[in-house]
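Still learning. Any example?
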Amino acid sequence: MGQMSFRISCSMASMIGSQSPTAIKTIKKWPPMNAYQLLILFPALVAFAEPPPPQWIWSANGDRMSAGAETTAQRVFVAEGEIERATLRATADFAALTVSLNGKAVLRFDPYDPPAEVDVSRLMVKGKNTIVATATGVDGPSALAVSLEIVRKGAEPTLVGSDATWKGVLRSQGAVDLQRWGLPRLPDVSPFSEYNQWMEAKSGSTDARLSPLPPGFEIVKIRDAQPNEDTWISLTFDPKGRIIIGKEQKGLLRLTLSSNRNEVVSSETIEDTLKECRGLAWKGNDLYAHANNSKAVYRLRDTDGDDRLDEVTQVLATKGDSGHGRNALTLGPDGAVHAITGDDVLVPATSLRRTRPEPQAPNELGHWARYSESADGTATWETFCRGLRNPYGIDFNGDGEAFTYDADHEADTGLPYYRPTRINHLVSGANYGWHQDRQNQRSLPVHAPDTAPTTFDVGRGSPTGVRFGARSHFPSPWKEALFALDWAYGRIVAVHLTPNGASYTASGVTFLEGRPLNVTDLVFDADGAMWFVTGGRKTQASLYRVRYTGQKTNPAPVDEQAQASAAFSKQARELRKRLERFHGKTDLAAVDELWPHLDSADPWIRTAARVALEWQPLDTWRERALAADAGLTAKLALARAGSDADRAAMATALPSFTGKSRTEKLTSLRIREWTGSMKPIEKPAVDASDAVNRELALALAAIGSPDAVSFALERLASATEQMERLHYIEALAETKSGWTTTQRDTFFTTLAHARRFSSGDRMMPAFFQALEKSALANVEDSATRERFAKLLAEEPVAEPMPAQPARSFVQHWSVADLEKPDASAAKPDLKRGRELFTAMLCARCHVCGNTGRPMGPDLTTVARRFSRRDLIESIVEPSKVIAEVHQNVIVTKTDGSLVMGRVIQINFRESKLVLATNPFAPAESVTLAKSDIMHWEPAPVSPMPPALLDTLTRAEIEDLLAFILNGGAQP
C-alpha cells in the first residue's frame, strides 16, 4: 500500500476466508479481490493499526485515592532514523492530565475526558526526546497512561509506553485494557462510502456482499421476506421461541423455526391492523407494540389460550408526526416497558417528567419514557430525558443503565454545528441538546455544560436497533458489547463500555458490514445467537443469524487499576441515582444533600445534582447560588431555573474564567449566554481547548468586544479542519464592529473561498447565504459593501499562470542547509519576501497576512505553531507529512483511467463526488459517479510541488522565510 497511513483492520486482515462452510453456502461468495476493491465496498473496515496499550502509572509517593494528589512521570528516549509519523495517545483515570513532548504541551485532559491522540511528528527530533506527563488527581483511584508510536521509514513501528521504568513512578497498576485504551469514535465515513447502498435492496435481489466477521463467528441468512410479507422493521422472540416481526406497512408476522433453527417451517400473519410497529417487547405473556403510524402503544394478549393474540388494546396514545416517531420498546430491569421516541412525538400532557421545561428550548423532542400501569389499570408515561433527535433502539446493560443510538442531521454535514450519530448513555433529567439554540433550530454543542456528554461517536449513519450482548453466548469482549445498527451504511457496530465514574468511556469497531445490508433490528435468542433483520422503505427484507462457533475463551484477567476503577465507579453510579430521586419532585432534604456534589469532577454527578437543584423551590437555594463562594454549577442552575431578576443579578457579577479548567471556562461562558451578560471579557489569550476558543469567539462577538475580530481571525488562520474554520467565519460574520480595512479584505476573501470549496451536504448553500447576508449587513460603507458583494457573487475562473522570468537553478537545498539562519546575511527584506511569496506561486494556494488565496493551510500564524525547522521541512519535503484535509486521492475508474484530486464537495445522498484536480486552478474540477469508481488510495505525494526553493539564493530564502514567519507583515 505504499505510503498509506492506514491498513486493513484486524476485523478484515485476520479474517478473510474465516467464514464457515455453512456460511459460505448461504452468502454470496466473493470473487478474488485486492485490498482496495474490498475497501470500496466496505470503507468502514479501514482503521489505523492499533498499537498495544501501555501500563497505568502514578507517582512513587502520591496518594492516588485523594483529590489533589499530584504526580509527574518522565521518559527520555532516543529516536533514530527517518521518522515518517509519530502519534501520541494518552488517557487518565480520575485525574486532570497534561502531556508534553520536548517541552511543548500536546494533550490536555480534564478529569473524566476520554482518551485522545495527536500527531507529534513535527515535534520529534533525532536523538534525545523527552515525554513528561503531569497529573492532578480527583476523588477515585487516579492513574495515567501514555503511549507514543513512532513509524520510521523501512522499519517496524516503535512504541514508547508508560510503565514502571518512567522517572517518578514506583510501579504500574497493570496494562490498560484494550477497550479502555480505544478512542471514543469510529473513523470518519469515507467520502467513497455509498449512503444509497440500501437502494440496491429495492431491486428484490436476495444477495448481500458481507464483510468477514471476527474469528470464530459464522453468519447464515435464514430466509428472505416473501412477496406478500412486506418489508421488516422490528424483531423479537415470543415465549415459545418463535420469531415475531413488525412489518413496515401494518401487522405482525410470526415465523416458526425448525428444530435445528436453520430454516423457517411456517409463516403467518398474527395481527393485521397496527401500522408500522417499530417497537416490540414481551412482558410475561403480553406483547407490547409501539405502532408508529397508529400513534400509540398497544398491548396484545391471547385471552382464550388458542395461541392467537385476539385482544389488541390501545394503552397509551401519543400525538405528533411519525417520521422521527415511535420507536423501540424494551423490558427494563425494573420490570416495566421502556420506550424511545424521535423528535416528532409529543410528550403527553399528563406525563410525569424528570427534565425541567426550558424557556429557551420549549420543545422536548426525542425522549426516553417508562410505561407502567397502576393496580387500577391507570397508564403512566414518565419521561426521563429530552433533546434527542431520532433514536430508534434502547437497551439496558448489566448495571441497569440505558443506552441508545441517536441520529444526526446529515444535511448539516460539514457545518460547524454538525453532530454525528452517537451512542448516548441515557440518564434521568438529562438534556441531549438537539434543537436548543438559534430559534430552536440548532443543537447545543456537545461541550455545553448543561447537556449530556457524548459516550461514543459513530459518525454519519442512520441509527436503528441496539442490543447488549449480555444475552449472547459470545466470548468477551463481544458479550459485554453494545451492538448498534446503522441502516444507511449497512453495518453493525460493536461498542465497548468501560465503567468510569457515574458513566462509561467507550471504544468501538465495525462488527459486520454489508452491501446492501439495511439492518433494522436485532435480538438474541435463548441459545445466545444473534438474529437480525434487514428492510425498511419497501426494500427486500431478510433474516440472518450470527453464532459463535469458535473455541471457548477465558476472560482476560482484570488488572489492578480496572478493579479499583470498577469498584469506585459502582459507588459513583449509586450516588448519581440517589441524586436522581429528586428529579421531577420537590423535597425539603434535597438542597442540603445535593449541594456538595454540584461541583463534582464527575460531569454525570454534576448534572444529576444540578437537575435536582433546578426542581427545588428557588427560595430555598437562590441566596446560596448568588453567594460569591458558590460554585459555577449552582450559578448555572440559577441562570436556567431562576427569574429574569436572578439572571440580571448574575450578569453583572460573573467571575473571571482566566486560569480555570476547561470545564469552568465553558460553564462561565454558558452562564453569560443564559444571562445575556455584556460584562467585558479581559483581553483573551488563545486557550489550549478548542471548545473554549470557539465559545469565546462567539462571546466576544456578542458583547462587541474590541478583541473579537483579531481573536477570531487568529483562530481562523490556525484552524486545521473545515468545521473549525467555518465556526470562526460564522463568528466573524456576526461581528459588527472593530474591523480594519485589511481585516475586512482578509475575511471576505476567505468567506468567498470557503463558500466555493467547502465539502458538505444540502444545508451548506443556505448556511453561506445567511453568513453573507450577515457579513454584508455589518459593512457600513455602501461602496465597500458593493465590492464585497461582487467578490462573493463571482464564480471562480481558471486564472492563467502569471508571467515570470525564467529562474536559474541555484542549489538543491536540504533541511540541514537551511535549518539555522544565515548569520552572515543582512537583515531580511520583507518587501522582497512578499514578492517572492507571489513569484514562487506560494500565494496561489496559501494566505500569509493579506497576501494569497486560502486553498491550502493559512500561513499567517505559522510561527506560533511551528518552528523554523518545521516550516523549512514542509517546504523542502512537502510529502513527508501531508495533512489529511489537504491530501489528494488517486481514483481508478472502472474504465481503467485515473483521476487525482482533492475531494471538495460531497452530497452524501447523491452517488457522486467532486474532485479539485489542479491546486493552482481551483475552478477546475471533475465530477465522478461512485458507480464508476473501482478503487482509490491517498496520494503519497503532496499537492505542493517539491524543489520550490532550488532557484532561490540563500539570501532570497531568508527573505521569504522572514515574510512568512512574520505573519505576512507589510514592510
